[in-house]
Amino acid sequence: MKNLLLGSSMMFIATLGATPSMAQIGEGLVSEGQISENLASQQLLARIISLEEELASLRTAVQQSTQNAAIAREKADIAVATVTKVETKIVKVEKKAKSATYSGSESDAKWHLAGYADVGFVGSNNASGNDSFVTGKFNPGFHFQYKDLLMFESELEFVTNSDGETTTELEYSQINLFLNDYATLVVGKFLSPIGQFQERLHPSWINKIQGAPAGFGHDGLQPTSDTGIQLRGSLPVGETRLAYTLMMGNGPRLTSESAVDTEGTGRDDNSNKSFGGRLGYFPTPNIEIGGSFLTAKVNSYMDPAAGLPFVPTGPTDSRYKLWGVDGAYTKGAIAARFEYLNSTRASLFTVTDDEPLGEIVPTLDMEAWYGQISYRLSNVGGSDFIKRLEPVIRYGQFRINGQDELAEENAQNRFNIGLNYWLSPTIVTKAGLEWRNSIVAGVDSETRYQFQVSYGF
Q1: In angstroms, rounded to a whole number, what is the distance separating the alpha carbons of residues 140 and 145?
Q2: Judgement on whether residues 411 and 433 belong to the same structural domain of the protein
Q3: Are residues 110 and 147 in the same domain?
């Protein structure tokens, strides 16, 4: 097209060369038609020049667009290659995660690590007591779930004792089968469902005060765990709910001091099994009222190596019965709790540390209760420091009749006041005082100063 325009231009210029001059026009040699023709030719020439300029500009724009398209195509190719590499890495990571968890569907099996740890300090005004830093406990908990059918959970406890040795205990290890929305079958070693403290409140970052209430810790009245089977769940009752737990286990054992050891064991020492459970009723979502019971037979304590080289002068087993009630009110910043337990172990003939040839020990009656209230100052004032504070008060009693040695060590009134500071929802520092007033004549009372840092994870 450019060549055609250039040819036309040359012809037009030649024509102009043959056109008469203005002098000739002035002399009247050129007609008016020729003048009009010359003007039209000049206009055509101007139009041709304008079209050539537009064509050159268009060609430049097309060339620039072609270059931009090539650059964009190159960048797109690089982006596609990068995405392909990332997708390949993701597939490799997913394959590794899949082989490390479960060989089937990736959503079938899940696992979770939880637990708690604490460190602290305990001082005493008692001359026989020693002020000590305590390493507390480290309790990792493991949870493995398969679909909505089964979950295995277990908790270990690592503790450094007063001799500097580290002891390891299996707090619980159980399999939960989810039967339906209202029932779960639990098999294994589980925390005792009797009352509330052991099953729900004993972890140090949940427990509002350092240490358990009198009679509710290890070697107390409340059972800590059992090995057996549970059926538990909740049922709708109108607009409220009823929580239930029914259990059967190996049950408690008698110790060499004729006390009742309620720690779960991996093997029963008799054919009798313990039966128990708890019912909890929620009249409102913030209030729970519960009742618990447990019954079992305990055998006399005998040295397994020595056997029984004499004729017993009384029964060698006895009935152990326990019952209790509890209540809780939790709403917003306030939490109030109450628990009461009562147990009886009938008299029987057994071997003790003091009487290696055996004796008839009397009926053992034990009673323990506590009340506790705490209030988080989250709605008080504008200071962030004040909002993280939580004062707490607890009072309880532990009564023991029928075994003097056990009463001397544990029977007491116990009063606690504390102030907690929450660094985060699962990290708390505790400072408190504990007054232990023994009810046994000749046993000194004690005041303890406590400090603890607890972390739940």
Answers
A1: 17
A2: yes
A3: yes
pLDDT in the model for residue 105 = 52
- The sign of the torsion formed by the CA atoms of 189, 190, 194, 195 equals positive
Beta carbons within 8 Å of 189's beta carbon, 6+ residues apart:
170, 172, 173, 174, 225, 226, 227, 264, 266
What CATH number did the domain enclosing 412 receive? 2.40.160.10
Q: Does 29 reside within a domain? A: no
Q: What is the pLDDT of residue 278?
A: 98
User: What residue numbers bound the domain in which 11 lies?
Assistant: 1-18+36-101
Q: What is the pLDDT of residues 309-328, one digit of tens each?
A: 567 788 888 999 999 999 99
Q: What are phi and psi of 345, to 5 degrees?
A: -115, 120
Least reliable range by pLDDT among 76-85, 181-190, 393-402: 76-85
Looking at the structure, tell me whether residues 180 and 290 fall in a common domain: yes
Residue pointed to by tokens 């003790």: 352
> Residue 59 is which amino acid?
R
User: What residues contact residue 255 under an 8 Å CB cut-off, 6+ apart?
Assistant: 261, 301
Is 288 within the bounds of a domain? yes
DSSP class per residue in 268-311: -SSS--EEEEEEEEEEETTEEEEEEEEEEEEEPP--TTT---S-
> From the CB of residue 85, how many other CB atoms can be counted at a distance below 10 Å?
10
Asked whether the predicted pLDDT for residue 83 surpasses 70, the reply is no
Q: Which residues, at least 6 apart from 437, have a Cβ–Cβ distance to it below 8 Å?
A: 412, 413, 414, 415, 445
Residue 208 has pLDDT above 80, yes or no: yes
Strand, coil or helix: 23: helix
Dist. CA 156–CA 137, nearest whole Å: 10
Q: Count CB-CB contacts under 10 A for residue 40.
A: 10
Between the alpha carbon of residue 32 and those of residues 26, 28, 99, 120, 141, the distances in Å are 11, 10, 100, 120, 112
pLDDT tens-digit readout, 392-427? 999 999 999 998 888 998 999 999 999 999 999 999
Q: What is the dihedral of CA 393, 397, 398, 400, to 10 degrees?
A: 170
Q: Which has more pLDDT, 402 or 41? A: 402
CA distance 344 to 253: 14
Instruction: Give the Cβ contact number of residue 110 at 10 Å.
Output: 14
